[in-house]
Amino acid sequence: MEILAHGIDLVDFPRIEQMIERHGPRFVDRVFTAAEQAYAGRHRNAVEKYAGRFAAKEAVLKLVGTGWRGKIAWTDIEVTNNAAGQPEVTLSGEVKEIADRMRISRISLSITHTANFAIASAVALVPSNAAPGS
């Protein structure tokens, strides 16, 4: 496997909290999948969890080089945790189509939080024979 691209994003908790307060379920349903909402809802610090997922989605959009536009939906990127608690990315819709064209076989994701911020880093991996210049 070789690294094809990297994306990183920083989100401050008040920004997400204000969006939730201002737009309520409309914002949450538009941006987060049912699994992501359930995960955040199980935690006392739901805004922190939403901010981490939001940062991860932005990081993934940066690594595929599109940003949020066109037919891309926020829910095309779902962030869950495996049994060990490590975040994992599942793509669908337009984002999956773009990633498939780029021959991305895996996205390695890391999310961390401070008192007021969530940071996510996403790395796109491709088979060694698919990397540019191989």
CATH topology term: Ribosomal Protein L22, Chain A
DSSP strand content: 25-35%
Indicate the low-confidence ranges by residue numbers. Answer: none
Number of helices: 5
Shape: globular
Estimated structural class:
alpha+beta
CATH architecture designation: Alpha-Beta Complex
The first-level CATH class is given as Alpha Beta
**SSE string, helix = H, strand = E?**
EHHHHEEHEE
Biggest sheet, in brief? 3 strands, antiparallel
List how many beta strands DSSP finds. Answer: 5
Structure characterization notes:
The chain is an alpha+beta fold and 134 residues long. The protein has a single domain (2-130), classed as 4'-phosphopantetheinyl transferase domain (Ribosomal Protein L22, Chain A, Alpha-Beta Complex), CATH 3.90.470.20. It has helices at residues 13-23, 25-31, 34-41, 46-64, 93-101, and strands at residues 2-12, 77-81, 87-91, 106-113, 117-126. The strands form 2 sheets. It has a 3-stranded antiparallel beta sheet with strand order 1-5-4. A two-stranded antiparallel ribbon has the order 2-3. α3 (34-41) packs antiparallel against α4 (46-64). It is globular. The N and C termini lie close together (12 Å). The mean pLDDT is 93.
